[in-house]
Design brief:
Two copies of one chain form a homodimer.
Chain A: E1 13-20, E2 25-31, E3 34-40, E4 43-50, H1 55-65, E5 75-81, E6 86-91, H2 98-107, H3 116-123, E7 133-134, H4 135-147, H5 151-155, E8 159-165, E9 168-175, H6 178-191, E10 200-203, H7 209-217, E11 222-225, H8 231-240, E12 243-249, E13 252-257, E14 262-263
Parallel strand pairs in A: 3-6, 7-14, 10-11, 11-12
Antiparallel strand pairs in A: 1-2, 3-4, 5-6, 8-9, 8-10, 12-13
Chain lengths: 267, 267
């Protein structure tokens, strides 16, 4: 496994004084939530609320999933300044997203925070690859992910995004927002030039339109979650031909799109 | 109870074909997720992803929680157009949030979607009222809310926000994003000119910085949740003197701020 959660990283949780129902006081670990401002060249793009690990991957993945950074060949530098809480991504070609950002202001939702119109347009040309997932691999992934030491098990109140191949978790990111965890995954894929055609993405969060759009942008054909669906998320998965599996707990699940990639053991 | 969830509302869920782990196919209810664009006079402010009920309350509450609509006296009209999926809020005084919106573009996070800088500034002057919550009322609220027929019990994948007084839930809104459900609550409070000094807000979502800021904006002194905390959420609750109770399940909970409002039965 390339990257796994580091629940002992002292920067990611803070011990805070709590009192419980028995009237007992003690210190419990609580996840951090801090702003990170992402610049593309000299333009301020967004401030994300994040736990703060992997800021460069978050910036790269966010910009890529937004369609503002299409390929690494154009990338010149990625600079992180911890004191200023900023990441500046520099490209060789000039960028100007004044108009795009204006559109974002006008169309991004509270629940979305993305240049939604553009991302919907980009979906029109998505053709997700053929791939397979064995039911037994899916159950194994779910078991491995749930049992792996993580900030979720340590402190709760956090979402995970796990890039998988077969029954193996490859990279496991966590963040306060499920979309940040997915954007970090996109950044890792971009930085390491990983092929996504045979990968599966596991998220602990709900399968909303935004999650399906990001997964499609990343070229990943299979998306699964322990949580449930929204109807628009299902619509978009069906439209892009994505395999969408939710409510995966133990050896139970629901599949609502892309049945042809799932290989069931029990015929 | 003034407003409770309507899980049988045919506009809020859609039956979609699913296959489960046993290979059986059936139709399951999935919550809708649709865009709603909010205008303030002739200015487009935001597009929220919402289940779609109470669009006017969502618009009113969102604008109020953003500091763009301070009082009802200034309100002229609220028009909802279902076909265009828009709400237009009209005020007597002229509004111009070009600069504010620019700031939003620059500072709103994926996880936030709010004019964050402004809301942080507004917190400086917040003085939350004295109030009390009995432990037994808290447990009663939790039990009533969890057992009440809701979209959550019907279809899952949705958050709830419940305005309470003593052991009584008064209004219970649901939405795909926890902040939308809270904004609808703010809209209802504004529209009905409700005093919030003796109220408690229950949310099913995590107690993040954004949730604490919105609750403070609404003048509600007590915020509780079945979910966990972020460290910044706790910081802001302590700063504004808000009572913050999380991980409320059965008769268990954790309190991390504003201990003086909680009346424990077991001394």
């Amino acid at each position: 496994m390339f990257i796994k959660p580091n629940p002992k990283d002292a920067d990611l949780t803070r011990k805070l004084r709590a009192m419980d129902h028995k009237g007992q006081s003690f210190d419990i670990p609580i996840v951090e939530e801090r702003p990170l401002t992402i610049f593309l060249n000299n333009q301020e793009i967004v401030t994300a609320m994040t736990i703060g690990d992997y800021p460069k991957l978050l910036a790269l993945g966010f910009l890529h999933n937004q369609g503002m950074l299409e390929n690494l060949a154009d990338l010149q530098a990625v600079d992180y300044d911890e004191d200023l809480a900023t990441v500046v991504v520099r490209t060789k070609s000039k960028t100007d997203y004044e108009e795009k950002l204006k559109k974002k202001t006008q169309t991004s939702g509270c629940a979305v925070g993305t240049v939604f119109g553009d991302m919907m347009d980009a979906l029109e040309t998505v053709a997700l690859p053929k791939a397979q997932i064995h039911e037994r691999d899916m159950f194994a992934l779910s078991r491995k992910i749930n049992q792996m030491p993580s900030l979720y098990l340590e402190a709760g109140a956090i979402h995970g995004s796990v890039l998988c191949e077969g029954d193996e978790p490859l990279v496991y990111f966590e963040d306060v927002g499920r979309h940040n965890a997915v954007d970090k995954t996109a950044g890792w894929i971009l930085q390491n030039r990983i092929s996504t055609a045979n990968k599966t993405l596991y998220t602990t969060g709900r399968l909303t339109s935004e999650m399906v759009i990001k997964t499609a942008r990343m070229g990943i054909p299979i998306l699964m979650s322990r949580s449930g669906f929204t109807a628009w998320g299902v619509d978009l998965a069906q439209k892009t031909g994505m395999t969408l599996i939710g409510r995966l707990r133990g050896e139970r699940y629901m599949i609502l799109s892309g049945y042809e990639r799932l290989i069931r053991e029990r015929a």
